[in-house]
Amino acid sequence: TICPNPPHMKITAKPFVSVLVFFPLEAGTPVNGNDEVERNMVLVEKLAYSKGLSPEAISIMLEFAMSLRMGTSLCARVLKCLIPATLVPQEAVVRAVVWLSVGKIPVSTQILFIKWVLTVFDMIDAKDQLRAVYGFIFNFVTEENLCPFICHLLYLLTRKESVVSCSMLILFPQGRQPFLLSLLSLYKVFCPEMVMLSIPSRIKSGFRNHNMPWKSALIAVQKGAGPHVAAGISPASTTIKTNPRKRKRCHLELPVMTSVVSKEAQTEPSSCGKVVPLVQLHSFAQLLENMHRIELPAQMGSLLGSSLALQYLDCVQDESALLRLNFWLGYALHEEFLFCGDRGASQNSQEALPFLDRLLSTQHFLQEGFSCSEAFLYKFLNVWDGSLLRPQILGLLSNIPVVPSAQIRQLLFEPLMQLFFTSSLFFKCGLMECLNNMLLKWLTWHSVYALEDDLDISLNSHTSINMTLSGFKDSVMELVDFVGRLASLGLQLEGCHSLLLSFVLDFYETVCDMFMKYGLPLVVMPPPGVFYPALFATDPVSVDRLAYIMHRWGLFTSCFDNAAMHVQAFHISRQMVREFNHYIIVMVNCLWNSKMFQLDMGLSLGEDLLLKSKVPQYWASFDLVHHPAFMSYAVDFHHRVMLAWRKDMDLNSIKDSKPWSWYLEFLVSQGYDGLKQFVQSNIGRQQLPADEG
């Protein structure tokens, strides 16, 4: 291992100029024992790791390495110290690519060179000449060892005009490797007729992180901290050993939007006539004027920080841009939350917070999530502690598209159930809100994208997955049943806490509107573990909301009178009708008729036990007068109205005909419209006969 010179050795401009003059050596110059070569190499390494190399130096050293003028021994060493200070000349990269075809460069060195190109790709001053030799680069796909890295480079260079026939890819011994599928998926976007291979809608990211030999040095040079890291970088080593416990996040900073076309090229009329860099647009009017001539930035992650870029994605629906953005996001999320040691994500949450907030705002703007964040969440939920960046993670979770019923248990329900029962009350409330938002998005998507004949519906405009209406209903039913189980057990664990009950009722308000508001022919009753805690709640708001929910479900009865909406069209079973009728009977007898604990109510208690409670008139303990949630209103009403002709406190007097109607109006005036609607739609109405279902 050759280490850089000690700190006392200074590099001035003149000595380094002489170094650059020295390196265009003649072929065959010996290496072993050549002290002058070694001395100049040390000077280059010292400058590279401290300040970075200028474009001119990059060109000279890259030509020296790839031409093998001094054999293969120095080639890898030179490549590892090519740390650019500013830009990388495109011409130098093109010449180096041409040297690959000579056949004398070892395969390991060829791979190292392609890795270097991938690392500095966004620092190359232009890409037009590289795209001009796209077909030449494509020929290296047949090299088994180079194929993963060449596919990555082609993925970054691909434009519609550069797509070539890729049927030969299917014949490769690598088969359906992720890196090939990723490149083919991009080809299929531009020229679907040229790709006969079926591409999965969800494929594993095929491109790995290849920039480790230069990563730390690039960051240090860009931040001006080169001398502090130079000593820890071994120029001759293949990889840099980093301590995962001290790893710093570097992917969560949104890159600055830059053009893939050099500034010199932008001034040429020929370049300006073809494309307009997105970075040069500053208004929506300019965006509309140049909509079909826009050149996307070098770093796709920079799109998240530009409102104009998001408007472009929303208007044009550029599939290639979405694919590239998905790749960048997936890489950042996996690297910083899944692959960092010792829970590295929690060490730099200040960087992760704005990144995830920006991702959430982007998804809200586009009104759909990214497939990469969906794949990330399925893995992250298994290692998440439920507290790290909880609002952001739950926000991303609520944007997940419809999950097939056969997969939803393993991907979502199992990890969420473990988190739910081992976390605090506030996490339970947050998860209930998240699942409610998820259901709302699913129902909204159904109401917008469902076909009129209800035979087939597509998940979204950027995926090939289709789901039948019955499959969609199965997924919704699975979600509602899962929330019902969580809510029932959660309310028991938390002592029917009013805050948790409020979020649970939010969810069931969405459920009761699935048909009336979103057109989904599905009826689901709340489980007893939700219905009875809401009915016997000590706060009047919960009882009022339950009354509203039952009123909304009662509106389904109008469908039975419409021949075009037969019961079977809603898949309402006899059991569902019995549950609905039972809940209505319980609420009417409890709140209105003062007939609590009757044998036909499902809540019958032994007569001896009821007498031992010593509660007078226990059968009326939960009517609208004596219910714990409304007793304070009954007392207030009695003081305001009844004391005008009664001096003693007798709440039972409110049940007389005239005071009772006044009392109901008094409750409605307090804002309890749910009770009003329930009474109007259910009191004195015949229940549904169970045999009609």
TrEMBL record:
Localization in the cell: Chromosome, Centromere; Nucleus
GO CC, alphabetical: inner kinetochore; nucleus
Pfam families: CENP-I (PF07778)
Key words, A-Z: Centromere, Chromosome, Nucleus
InterPro entries on file: CENP-I
Protein's GO biological process: CENP-A containing chromatin assembly; mitotic sister chromatid segregation
Record family assignment: Belongs to the CENP-I/CTF3 family.
Official protein name in the record: Centromere protein I
Organism expressing this protein natively: Gasterosteus aculeatus aculeatus
